[in-house]
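Backbone-to-sequence.
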């Protein structure tokens, strides 16, 4: 990177962080996630410079069954992430100081050939992870979780999966097509990518095609924490049961933004009423701190259906808290939020 520009960035622990919002207005300049450096700006700084955590976009929505637009999702989330600040008090961590985080830009995928697109995502993810970086991918529709699981399972073996979504996404085919946004986790099961002792959907709701959907899903090994379960049990109990189910296995987290109620995330392709709040989702994700998180995706943000960046902002905060869990790393103490350390808040 250009040393003259370093002053414009927050640099802590030798990690190059976001553009400094006190010096450069946060609405100025090109959007990277959280105004972080691009990966190629880091690698330009010398051979030793590499990222521990990489944010990458996949502009792809050829797998959708209803409203399109998720091909624009990654850049929308980047634009909606300009207000994020360097310290995350909810997890008591400065994620961009604890780890080098960078934005790798977008994977150029074929919009006319789904299987070719899946191959390209797998190759790109594998290359980005080659020197140990962990990926947070911004979709794109949910089809892209399959190649991301392929890349992660090749590295770690069959992975535990926490899948935050209104939908099961373990359906078989649509119009005879096997690779769609409603089918990635059935394909992942069939391909042996999943550790079938450690799978759970969270936030499930909405009508199904029939009871066989649930029987198939259970056969693949998934547990289900419905949206209503989150409401009835509360986030702490949900976190406890997810941690028990997964243990210290390599864990992949896939967040379909439609897990949120359409009031919290209207900009998505297949909305369902009765969803979680963004507060509930963020708090459950924070509860994963210290688990062996190996990668994550946040998918199904469709900006043409968004209003006032509601969905983009929710997704940006989800990515930020996932990066925070990754930056803290496996084995990090459960700990608590920074709030209350100075005795200024209640409930900690
Ligand atoms: N993965 C998402 N967002 N939706 C799947 C819905 C599939 C269907 O139309 O039944
Ligand atoms: Zn969904
Ligand atoms: Zn989905």
């Amino acid at each position: 990177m250009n040393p003259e520009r370093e002053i414009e960035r927050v640099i802590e622990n030798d990690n190059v962080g976001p553009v400094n919002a006190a010096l450069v207005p946060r609405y100025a300049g090109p959007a990277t996630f959280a105004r972080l450096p691009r990966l190629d700006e880091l690698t330009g700084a010398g051979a030793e410079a590499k990222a521990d955590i990489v944010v990458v976009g996949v502009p792809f929505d050829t797998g959708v069954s209803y409203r399109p637009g998720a091909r624009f999702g990654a850049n929308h989330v980047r634009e909606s992430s300009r207000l994020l600040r360097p310290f995350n008090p909810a997890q008591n961590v400065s994620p961009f100081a604890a780890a080098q985080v960078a934005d790798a830009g977008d994977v150029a995928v074929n919009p006319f050939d789904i299987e070719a697109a899946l191959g390209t995502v797998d190759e790109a993810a594998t290359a980005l992870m080659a020197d140990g970086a962990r990926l947070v991918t911004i979709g794109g529709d949910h089809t892209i979780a399959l190649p991301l699981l392929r890349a992660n399972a090749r590295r770690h073996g069959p992975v535990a999966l926490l899948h935050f979504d209104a939908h099961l996404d373990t359906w078989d085919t649509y119009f005879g097509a096997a690779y769609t946004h409603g089918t990635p986790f059935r394909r992942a099961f069939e391909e042996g990518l999943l550790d079938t002792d450690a799978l759970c959907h969270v936030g499930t709701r909405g009508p199904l095609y029939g009871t066989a959907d649930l029987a198939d899903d259970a056969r693949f090994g998934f547990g289900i924490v419905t949206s209503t379960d989150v409401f009835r049990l509360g986030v702490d109990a949900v976190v406890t049961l997810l941690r028990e189910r997964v243990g210290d296995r390599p864990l992949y987290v896939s967040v379909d933004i439609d897990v949120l109620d359409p009031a919290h995330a209207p900009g998505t392709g297949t909305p369902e009423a009765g969803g979680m709040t963004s507060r509930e989702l963020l708090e459950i994700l924070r509860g994963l701190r210290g688990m062996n998180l190996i990668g994550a995706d946040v998918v199904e943000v469709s900006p043409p259906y968004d209003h006032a960046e509601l969905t983009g902002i929710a997704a940006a905060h989800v990515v930020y808290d996932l990066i925070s869990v990754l930056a803290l790393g496996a084995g990090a103490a459960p700990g608590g939020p920074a709030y209350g350390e100075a005795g200024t808040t209640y409930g900690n």
